[in-house]
Amino acid sequence: MTKPLPSTEIAYHDVLLHIDGNWRQASNGRTSPVVNPATGEVLGVFAHAGEVDIRAAIAATSKGFETWRATSPFDRSKLMRQAGELLRARSEHVARLLTLEQGKPFAEAKAETLSAADIIDWFAEEARRTYGRIIPARSSAVRQLVIKEPVGPVAAFTPWNFPVSQLARKLAAALATGCSIIIKAAEETPAAPAELVRVFIDAGLPDGVIGLLYGTPAEISQHLVPHPVIKKISFTGSTPVGKQLASLAGQHMKRVTMELGGHAPVVVLKDADLSRAVSTMVASKFRNAGQVCVAPTRFLVEEPVYDEFVAKFSDAASKIRIGNGLDAETGMGPLANARRVEATEMFVQDAVQHGAEVVTGGERIGNTGFFFQPTVLSNVPTSARVMNDEPFGPLALMIPMRSIDEIMVEANRLNFGLAAYGFTRSAASAARIGDDIASGMMSINHPGLALPEVPFGGINDSGYGTEGGADALESYLNSKFVSHLQID
Ligand code: NAD
User: Could you give the domains of the chain?
Assistant: First the structure.
């Protein structure tokens, strides 16, 4: 393991707020505990911000915005690339914190950290391409310009399932466009995002450009969202909370990006390459113990290949090694918190009561930590709760389907629209799956989502706006129109 750089050698219990260029305790001294989901033990504490800290962060972000918007895109880009390099150099340390507080296997934590560095690099490159344009005027004495300006200070709320990469998306897009940002990262996983913030501070980011708060989520959002200094809200998390924040933002006419829950359908047609479908979907389903917004969930399998697909998928699922994420042999770690264990148990019991069969798994493992078996449920009826609510856990739902027409109806039954997957050798069927399923993202015959350069976002109850690709920058920019009549 590489030695952490000196500035990263902080004790776990010292997860601090970052306000106006300083790492600090909450002004009232309050702290809250962080639990290791693999052991149930308290790892340490984070500083729990109160109103004074929130106000200080708002004042600092206002000042930070003035400095950062005046920094040239060239210099912003250079600093961001340095931060990306620091993150790569510290990736072992960051990944270890991430595994300790979130539970995912170390290899996944490392991959997430390195993917965050790739996201930072990509947005750093785009920072230099926030071009405006000249619109031909009706008179030769008039110049018509469109100028791209940063929207202003951003309030970003990020989740515990991908504490580093989901934050990197918001942070990199904001900084690339010249915005300052106050982050409220998830209280359950505070140390890894703090280390992501630290690489920007250590790369020389001016004071106030990034603020980092932890505390009571509703208290922080109630202060930040309506505040006139804050010009844009970006949230990743559950649909109910997203709706609350979008509604509050709407009352104050704030720009909003919402990346919410999903319930991804997986279309498996009878002409699919079944072993490819099984290997890619088992890996996607049980990555991060299924706590992934784009996780494949409803497997809609044509009847002629249903039994074979379910048998092969369940066999592979039952062989996944469960354990502490710091153990090199572990294929799936614990769930991130006790709430997910309770929800997963409830979903399984309810599905069985509605007539589903448990093919493999279905139970919590032991009483230490938050472990749950990789679970496959077969013949799950649409009346089961898990067929309607996002499972956000290691549950694969298998449903036999008579035809592609029937599959399309089921795929579009829910109001979610984040990710969808398809497996077929037919170009015509692939085109139909791509065209007819209502979702923000679709991947056919491989797991092809979430690269920095491609759109990442949903529709309907899965939210709006995209956090990847060139479109992501637009949501942090205003288009100012300037019309200039030359009078001399
Ligand atoms: P939750 O709804 O209580 O919280 C979800 C996230 O929102 C957390 O990070 C939390 O800190 C934050 N949050 C909650 N209330 C807030 C408020 N008033 N203001 C600002 N932020 C607030 O749910 P949970 O139990 O933590 O997670 C379970 C559900 O969340 C899952 O079922 C899943 O649907 C969803 N989720 C989605 C994603 C995603 O990537 N889209 C990530 C994490 C969780």
Answer: 17-260+464-480 (3.40.605.10), 264-452 (3.40.309.10)
